[in-house]
Amino acid sequence: MSENAVDPDRRRFLTGTASVIGGIGAGLAAIPFVATFQPSARAKAIGAPVEADISQLEPGGRLIFKWRGKPVWVVRRTPEQLAALESLDGVLRDPASSESLQPEFAANPWRSEKPEYLVLVGICTHLGCSPNFFPSTDAEGMGSDWQGGFYCPCHGSKFDLSGRVYAGVPAPTNMEVPPYYYIDDTHLMIGELEEGAA
Question: Cα dihedral angle (122, 125, 127, 132), rounded to 10 degrees?
């Protein structure tokens, strides 16, 4: 074979080797770009369920937890507060919670799995303000039908101690009940339903 002759086997080998090495290099170079499409640990944590310890919650009190960047309230209602809920149907916009965002188990007058404990996303359904908590019946300026609940200072929306909206206020719907379940008697998992629940 002359000096200037081309060896086809060698050429194929070199071309194949270069292609394989180039493909491996391109794959390795793509890893950081593909990784940017995965949610960060922080983003995962923002949407992750939150465990809530309610062992220190006194009757008539409220605890606040954070889930998905929103305040979630857990209120422990007294027997008197629960009894008062039944008297409010005539002043509420949606007393049966038929237009509300809530798990199926919360479609009841107390809007919760256990009547004593209310779990709500603490955001007004009008424009997203966070209402104030006024649990007593003698809160100034709330009116004679006030049995305790939540008052939004931004535009005057009122909600009872089940998060149901009063009629004639700007908020269009009851406050949201997030998905949750009881881990045990004193701990909740906020942000997901128990397996098999609707």
Answer: -40
